[in-house]
Fold these 4 entries.
Entry 1:
Amino acid sequence: MGRILAIDYGTKRTGFAVTDPLKIIASSLETVQTNVAMQYIKDYVNKEDVECFVIGLPVGLDGKETDNTKPAQSFANKLKKNFPDKMVHFVDERFTSKMAEASMIAGGMKKKDRRVKGNVDKISAAIILQSYLEQNSI
């Protein structure tokens, strides 16, 4: 059984989260600079069995595309090209950053750690992944 790798794609930083092999728990993984995100994924897939990818799709409050929608879709297309045997799924990522900030506060994370943008990105990826798991539970 493979894991599901979630991606919170950004033009500067990209956050990652992953499930356990049984696909029950979503855990934050890492945040990397976007220019090395594809290589990070390739390295991860080489050492772990990844079943599919989930990408947060940036949409506005009105449900329409934002400036970040096309770059996320373009990254998804690169994923499909590099990993043709793996499905790529999109999840609406509205409010994930706010939810990530709230979860850091609830978890007792210090203010200086909450200001680290990479922490928000990887926690957002975990929220995206958890949302996908809930939408696709059997």
Note: The CA atoms of residues 101 and 120 lie 7 Å apart.
Entry 2:
Amino acid sequence: MDEQLTVPDPVLGVVPGPHRDFRMPSVVEEHTRAWLLTPPAERTVPDPRPSSTVMLLRDGSGGPEVFVLRRASSMAFAPGMVAFPGGGVDPRDADPDVPWAGPRPTEWARRLGADEAVARELVIAAAREVFEECGVLLAGPSDREVVADLGDPSWETERQRLLDRRQSLGELLTRRGLVLRSDLLSLRAHWRTPVCEPRRYDTRFFAARLPQGQRALHLTTEAERVDWAVPDELLAAQTEGTEILLPPTQVMVEELALVEDLDAWLAAAPSAVPAVQPWPVEHDGALWMRCPLGPEEG
């Protein structure tokens, strides 16, 4: 960890206490430096958009494997970087009539530190995004079952109807006689995009085991490729410079690299998930993302 520093800036505020610094990815260095050189009173800080992302997991020969996407270089946000399936909350996710199993939105509100309506949207967005982006459906005909076979072509039709907004996830589940299995999601982290980014997200990170019988596929145009990755190998690829992970992705992968029993880890979700807000700083002639750490991590 670096020496303790603060950032005395009227927009950035002061970032005291324990922290961890991550090198700024080269693809965002130019606009970050321009933002830092802008007089504080003239800087633009967009409001972050609520979003959900899901670490899909399965058991591998040496421990858990995580499904990752390498974002297309044409993407406006995080081009070329390794990410998990996910995206922003959509107006359709506000549907109060989604068939629901598992912890109720009131319980998710407590876990997420949000009001009930926002909590419902974040959980629904998580389930919708993994179905849209990789064809995995966290739903079943009852609170003890999950859809095991999505090979029928009609499921691809359902996915396309979600993508072009002809239906909501709630409408799909209701018509199919299914319930959203919110108990399959485990809340793991909460990160906000740095203030220097032109697109910002207020993102909850969930984890879920790949349902038995289902397959995660390369279905999104937002990714150049997808893969089941071994956490240690993914971290080594970042060190070698062949992959780029943003700080929240790196921290999550580092945590996964320590997991020995996937089911036990999923069950032992943290009781509180404070938001982490990285800040852009420059020291030692380079740009960094400075991430405050909670007391238990410092």
Note: Residues 1-14 have pLDDT under 50 and may be disordered.
Entry 3:
Amino acid sequence: MAHANGEHFAHEVTLASCGSWGVPARKQKLSSLDEVLAYRNRDVVQRFLVSYPMDPADAEEIFTETKRWLWLIGQKSKLRSRRRLLVTQPMAALDEMWHCFLLFTQNYGAFCARFFGQFIHHEPVTLAEKARARRRMQKDPEGFARAFARQMEWQYEFVAEHLGEETLRRWYVELPLKYPMEMLQRLNAQSAVAGRHR
């Protein structure tokens, strides 16, 4: 799962938050998970496959898990939790699919408005946040590691509570084993080389 020393926070974390940017203001609502998972967008999956040539069934599964992740962010917002959900390295495949979905800005904005009543932002950790994290890590490595471990323990429990242990295992064990960051980078590089030779 996450590195015990919390270095992922300082280097490889994406934050998820909700807001109204680009989406008409309306009363917040949250569709059921089944409704969110029923959403289809072949263009997003095909675009992902251009960058990451893999079995199309795997790409569809990653898109399904990304929709599940977005629903969870909406659920956290509905519960008005102040805790933040973090995308750490084990979730690299989901994060890359999320990036791909965001490229289709109108589709993504409409998806968020329809199912969540608000826009779900994808926010990389800022340079200032990374610098603060590095300072805390240097000042008190053990304290920083404990705080990061508590954050991830809360997140694992939140995922398991709302989506089940099977989803927790899929996100943090199965998908990272099948598509680790190194493999995604290799697939992306192969795609880029193949694109130049077309």
Note: The beta strands are 14-19, 85-87, 119-124.
Entry 4:
Amino acid sequence: MPPTPDHGSRTGLDLDLPGHVERELTSFLQRRRAEAELIDTSFADAVDALSGFVLGGGKRIRPTFAWWGWRGAGGDPDGPETPSVLRALSALELIQACALVHDDLMDDSAMRRGAPTIHVAFGERHRAEALRGEPERFGLAAAVLLGDLALAWADDMLFGAGLPPEALRRAAEPWRLMRTEVLAGQYLDVLTQARGDESVEAALRVPRMKTAAYTVERPLHLGAAIAGADEGLVEAFRRFGADIGIAFQLRDDLLGVFGDPEVTGKPAGDDLREGKRTLLVALGLEHAETSGRHDAAGVLRAAVGDPELTEERVEVVRELLVDLGAVAAVERRIDELREAALAALAAAPVAEPAATRLAELAVAATRRAW
């Protein structure tokens, strides 16, 4: 009689999940590139740029959380449906590609992962080929269309993954909600910047919708739904995911001001130049105003959204944020969110090894330089 599989042990898939996701994405994008070639060679060239962006970096965080949501709800990595599950969860990276391409365009970011952003790269193509019209508008149009293409292909990859009909039906709700939430978060981010809303409340509302929902909370929900998790486990995953997702974004906000460009792939202080109304900035302004340091508040306000912000002024802002206690306050908030998330995870009936791995990911995501 064959031995019973030990689902509590980590398998090869568990140990090299990013590599497996990479292979699924490569295979999918190669097929779509062949289809694009039949439409038009110029379109195929544009698809190459999108494929290069998708495959050119990233930690595959979202499929990782989704995988452990599936495993934590009893998903069997040795089961016949596993290849389809892996393919479906890999589609999250195309949602991420859409969000990043559009986010870079809205923020007018020049660099992503150490390379020109999509809208900048296509603007440079326009100049190099001496095309008609304005290079910036051409780059804008290309980025909008390629971001939309990534979103459309994400749907294709999920719904064509080969999941059993009942599993696909369960997956539809978190997928639908996630797509709406990430776009709502993007809009709220733009609106908050346009309004100049400096409140702590706004600084927390945006990452809740823009990052937490589609980075951790809904990927966990998606994986658990595919596995057939009950409502109680889904709610526990969502509590854990919301807290870790916000903490993840707060860590990212700190890296956006204090991070090493060699690690972040973006110029130092770019979040300040782009005018991001993060919790770090909101707390800095709040602490400056309540302590009567109006000159310090003025320095911060002048820096946020200044595209010509120099490295010297970035360093002044860094020192102010430390001196005002904003950095320490954000670090405390991250610690509180991580501890709340870990408590929610510990109280839930999450199968091993997912319970242990999710706890590890919670720490890595909030203390990392990912």
Note: The first strand starts at residue 111 and ends at 112.
